[in-house]
């Protein structure tokens, strides 16, 4: 597969379609099983509060992966992402209810690079707080 977006059709400032990703306690349990990360801050409310967190929090790598879906969906090929990095700024707090939390992600092309590549800057928010900082992906386009 290759990216479905043509480099020549993209300009700096091009906004990618935004995404909203729900996170529930069940989501965290499934992710823990898949990743092998069973740290109790991700599933045990009592433990999370005892260590100073407001509640159970989502795994950082899960949050990072959900955010980059905006980029991979836009590009049309996950392999088009050649670099990706973030800073974890705030946790995604996941209450024990039927709704959980929502990670809201927006992104835009911040720079056109050489070799058909662009840098995409992402903004990931949850409950009105930025949960990822310096979130950037480099994508090789068609």
Characterise the protein shown here.
The protein has 142 residues and is α+β, with helices and mostly antiparallel strands. 23% of the residues lie in helices and 36% in strands. It has 3 helices and 5 strands, in the order E-H-H-H-E-E-E-E. The chain has helices spanning 25-35, 45-50, 60-75, and strands spanning 15-23, 81-88, 101-112, 117-126, 129-140. The chain has a 5-stranded antiparallel β-sheet with strand order 1-3-4-5-2. A hairpin with a 2-residue loop joins strand 4 and strand 5 (129-140). The protein is elongated, with a radius of gyration of 16 Å.
Structure at a glance:
With 142 residues, this protein is an alpha+beta fold. 23% of the residues lie in helices and 36% in strands. Strands 1-3-4-5-2 form a 5-stranded antiparallel β-sheet.
Instruction: Name the helicity range.
Output: 10-25%
DSSP strand count: 5
Average pLDDT: 97
Shape: elongated
Measured by DSSP, the beta-strand proportion falls in 35-45%
Specify the structural class. Answer: alpha+beta
Give the neighbour order of strands across the main sheet.
1-3-4-5-2
Quaternary state of this entry equals single chain
From the N-terminal CA to the C-terminal CA, the straight-line distance is: 10 Å
How do the helices and strands follow one another from N- to C-terminus? EHHHEEEE
Largest sheet, strands/sense/barrel: 5 strands, antiparallel
Rg, Å, rounded: 16 Å
Question: Helical segment tally?
Answer: 3
Give start-end ranges of low-pLDDT stretches. Answer: none
